[in-house]
Amino acid sequence: MPTSLRQMLPLPMLPADRQNRRLAGFLLVSVLLHALLLLVVRQPALLDFPAGEPNDAPISVRIERAPPPPRSAPVAPAEPRPAPKEKQEKPKPPVKRPPQARIKPLPKPSPVPAAPDVTPQPVPQPLPSEPPEQARTPPAADMSEMIAAARARREAQRAAETGNSEQAPTEPGKNDIALANINRDLQRASRKPVLTSGVFQIVNKGVRTAQVQFRGWDPASDATWRQTLDVDAGLNGDIDHAIVRRIIALIRTHHNADFNWQSHRLGRVIVLSARPQDNAALESFLMQEFFGG
């Protein structure tokens, strides 16, 4: 091949040169596309005019200022109303207080010593016997016997007045025997009653009812007996006072004046009175003995 023709033909391309060529072609195409887009966007918009009118007619535009808005009349500020004058109250004259009398403090009361607690003694209360020389009271005589004795006494007095002493028999007659019996009955009636001794014991006590046991003995005859007293205080009654009053009633069947009471609470013998006029003192003492109040 001649040398001139060899120089005109391109030499075979290497693989690296072929890739660079393709890349350069892509860049060139991209630049052209962007230039076309810029030309299209920057092209001025064409105005459509109606047929018959020249497109080159001048357009006159007049720009005027808008009229200013009407000024509103200035509103006068409202005058502030004067505040109502407060009524000035006249000062009240000071009230004169009467002078207060000084109160003297009362003297402190002296401390009252506390009363000792007295607990009821469950120990039975004995009634001590009186002197042994006093004879026992016989049972009350029947009315018919009293009448017969009075009749016999009158007959004896009448016989003594007649002075018929010379006719007195050697042996005692019927009138003498009757007179002796009458004198014996009168002597028995004139003797002092025997004062019974005994012990009281409360065996049962409820709200309304109670039972008191009395064990008595006769110092003259050494006779003993036991008696149970039923006590009923009634509706809303005081059972303690009812027990004491029942005991006093039993004491008065054997004592009508002073009697001795052996007090375990005081530790000595007390002389008490069973007389009706001393009932309040006797009842108060027995309340303390049995119930401590």
Notes on the protein architecture:
- With 293 residues, the chain is of the alpha+beta class.
- Among the domains are: 125-131 and 194-291, no CATH class; 138-160 and 175-190, no CATH class.
- Helix content is 33%, strand content 15%.
- The chain is built from six helices and six strands.
- It has helices spanning 3-8, 15-42, 143-162, 174-190, 239-252, 279-291; strands at residues 125-127, 197-205, 209-218, 223-232, 258-263, 268-273.
- A four-stranded antiparallel beta sheet has the order 1-2-3-4. Strands 5-6 form a two-stranded antiparallel ribbon.
- β2 (197-205) and β3 form a beta hairpin.
- α3 (143-162) packs across α4 (174-190).
- The termini are far apart.
- Residues 82-92 have a biased composition (Basic and acidic residues).
- Residues 66-81, 106-131 have a biased composition (Pro residues).
- Residues 51-175 are annotated as: Disordered.
